[in-house]
Amino acid sequence: MSVKKVYDKQPKEFKFSDENLKKVEEILKRYPKKNKKSAVMPLLYLAQRQNDNWIPLAAMKYIANYLAMPYISVYEVATFYTMYNLSPVGKHFIQVCTTTPCLLRGADKIVKLCKENISPNENEISKKGNCSWMEVECLGACVSAPMVQINDDYYEDLDEKSTKEILISLINDKPLKPGSYRGRKNTSPEKILISNGEKHA
Amino acid sequence: MPKITINGKEIEFEKGMTVLQACELADVEIPRFCYHEKLSIAGNCRMCLVEMEKSPKPIASCAMPATEGMNIKTNTTLVEKARKGVMEFLLANHPLDCPVCDQGGECDLQDQSLYYGVDKSRFVENKRDVKEKYMGPLIKTQMTRCIHCTRCVRFATEVAGVPEIGAIGRGEDMQITTYLEKSMESELSANVIDLCPVGALTSKPYAFEARPWELKKTESVDVMDAVGSNIRVDTYNWEVKRILPRLNNEINEEWISDKTRYSCDGLLKQRLDVPYIKKNNKLQKSSWDEAINLLVDKIQSVQPNEIAGHIGDMINMENALSFKNFFKTLKSENLEFREKNFYINSDEKINYIFNTSIAGIEDADLILLVGTNPRHEASILNARIRKTFVQKKIPIFSIGNPGDLTYEYEIIGDSTEDIKKIVNNEHGFSQKLLSAKKPMIIIGESALELKSGGYIFEEFKKFLIKNNLINENWNGLNILVQNASTVGLLDLEILQDQKEKSSSFFDNLKNRKFKLLYLLGSDNLEFQKNDEFIVYQGSHGDRGAEIADLILPSATYTEQNGLYENLEGRIQEGKKASYPIGEALEDWKIFNRIIKKLNINEKSLNFDELRKEVLKTVKNFSEINELPKKSVIKTNNIETSFFNEKISVRELDYYYTNSISRSSKTMSECRQIRQKIKKDGTNN
């Protein structure tokens, strides 16, 4: 990880869409009126959703003015969390978990495949222009390591073969289904199927 | 009072203190980086770890509140080991480039690693690399040296009130920067240089100029505004290298404004080093004898009442008194020091000083600004208002629009009509003012300059006296003057019979009554030059020298001793740190030379005699560096006339207010950036 770079071609303006403005009102209701700046994180995420999965500076300013915060405070938050992208990402955005359990189970091989198939460096858009990847810290799915997150979905229990298939499907814009690639259902043990309440260990 | 045991010694402490403060009471030194008395507590450097009984881990003493019965140890092996460990971590990414670092010799990290650190590093990996950050023309950055104490971030947000510095990124990649690397838009920005415990933020104009141990340090006072900030002037040979703040909780705490700090390069530029005489419309170098002969001829060729004198903004009291005596021997009474004709009633001391006192602002529970922009007119005072605002959330109101003051205020009017309503209890605000226990009214020069300036002042004074808001314990009547010399000159009674001839100087100047105009360090007097013979006596080739027919070079405030009275009426001593340049002389010496030449049988006073006389003349004088004595308030009714006028706060070209700052390269850089921001629209 390094400090996120701010994209050099910034849009001039940003405004929440009407639909999102309604969501903003909902979000603001969660916090006491005098602490409305607490809403900075959900609002940044909303802005990211609205703007093709990245946050332009104009959006940070817009949110800062909306919540009556200094620009730098919003900027601090946006640079702190890996969840916020400050430059454009591919339509299929692959986040490879490389924290200890995933790494032990072979996340480095996934990273290598990403380098070969998508782009040689993190946060670079692929040649065809629809994918990008980055390494992230733990995504909380250690039980099905190694795993990647593609847009909103988890692809779990990967190996070299399945990863390559997934990556190629993404490049061809026909993404495969998310979930376990070793036939597991959710996070249940591989051989005996246990659902809640039955025979639990 | 609760008790705490520190290293086996039991001491009493005040409730609300932290363990670190309690340790200081016990004379135990605790190393620290992020903790600073005037800032909020961050607790992120971990240098102040101490051992507490019953706690398995060492605790951060700066963030731990002291409680009854705590047993703190600071000299155990555990503490020593903790300090060594923290220091090793801090130094892991620190470049250790002390030989090329400007902080060397006055660096907290250097000093503390000497006492508390280890002599070797076990960190063999590459050190972190951080790109340089632009923070404006005053602050030089070297961010690899940063240890992330966040003192600068807290200062900008809390004290300066311009939240523009922040920490971006996280973990090892955390970086301190201004928003998108813009220069910091504050008059107090350079204080982050003093706050920085390492060499990450250093002074740009002073970069690689000198080492701290080579400098001669002189404790003096500032004359850039009327606050009288306490400063330390650092000189190398005769050259003023830098100016730093001196701690004085009564006035400037630990801060000084950027103008105070960085005007000092103007002390070397544009200096007048020899007398000049205008010949064939050109100023030509001359000698003292020739210049004084010419001046004496001129004086003898005109009537005494055709001679006028104007005293500038940075003249100390001894020189002013000497000038007054000089004019007495010339039998001229046309003396003035105001740049614009603002209303001043010099009958009693409370009429022209900041009665609440700067430290007293913290007790106020309501502030009304009348035609003043304290942020530009007295930045340090504004910081104190902001401090009070932040701590107590007091309501602040303004008549006239001063712009961004770094705190919230409400504009309740913009005309003298509103003031009339307030003092007649017809305005909604009157009730708020009356219900406050310790209200402050701060009247600025912009209001006093109006035709109804007299009305504004006298009516507010009457109003406060009538409602018992000026009493033994509280005096909320404040005049905010802009020049360092103003209050002192009022005390020296430069304006004689003020009531009758309050505007005569300005009228006569306009009506071309004067044949000889003597400008003593006066550059800000705006008038149309006619056929007067203008003598300019001052230090810099500035506006005054431009129009002068005869120039006499004199010393600046760092080159002579002298008393200054700040806006609170506190007399402080400016000390000589360097020598006058070239053939320049102290002002009082020049007057004595002229008097000698004039062959008048008048005893001319030397410096010590002048000072004695000054201290005798000053009203309500108590002691040097102390507030003036309080006196019984007279209630003489002065009738003033009311005019319906708009009160607009005169915009001050902050970085360009006097001849020294106008000569300073640094100040003009700051000014350019400020103007550019204004033109392009600010980003924050």
Describe the structure.
The complex is a heterodimer of chains A (201) and B (684). Chain A has helices spanning 18-29, 40-50, 57-67, 71-80, 100-104, 107-117, 160-171, and strands spanning 92-97, 131-136, 148-150, 153-156, 179-180. Chain A is α/β, with parallel strands linked by helices. In chain A, strands 2-1-3-4-5 form a 5-stranded mixed beta sheet, covered by helices on one side. In chain A, strand 4 (153-156), helix 7 and strand 5 form a beta-alpha-beta unit. In chain A, helix 2 packs antiparallel against helix 3 (57-67) and helix 6 runs parallel beside helix 7 (160-171). Chain A is globular. With 684 residues, chain B is an alpha/beta fold. Chain B has 21 helices and 26 strands. In chain B, a hairpin with an 8-residue loop joins strand 10 (216-221) and strand 11 (230-236). In chain B, helix 8 crosses helix 19 (607-617). Chain B is globular. Chains A and B meet through helix 4 of A and strand 7 of B.
Number of H/I helices of chain A: 7
Give the termini distance of chain A in whole angstroms: 39 Å
User: Based on the structure, what is the oligomeric state of the protein chains?
Assistant: heterodimer
Uncertain segments of chain B of ≥5 residues (pLDDT<50)?
none
In spatial order, strands of the major sheet of chain B run 14-13-24-23-22-15-16
The shape of chain A is: globular
- Name the structural class of chain A: alpha/beta
Cα-based radius of gyration of chain B, to the nearest Å:
28 Å
Largest sheet of chain B: 7 strands, mixed
The amount of beta strand of chain A, in percent, is 5-15%
Radius of gyration of CA atoms of chain A, rounded to a whole number: 19 Å
Through-space gap between termini of chain B? 47 Å
Largest sheet of chain A: 5 strands, mixed
Residue fraction in strands of chain B: 15-25%
SSE series of chain A: HHHHEHHEEEHE
Please report the total strand number of chain B as a whole number. 26
Q: Estimate the mean pLDDT confidence of chain A.
A: 89
Largest interface, with counts of residues having CB < 8 Å to the other chain, equals: A-B, 14 and 17 residues
Q: Tell me roughly what share of residues is in helical segments of chain A.
A: 25-40%
Q: Quick check: average pLDDT of chain B?
A: 90
Low-confidence stretches of chain A: none
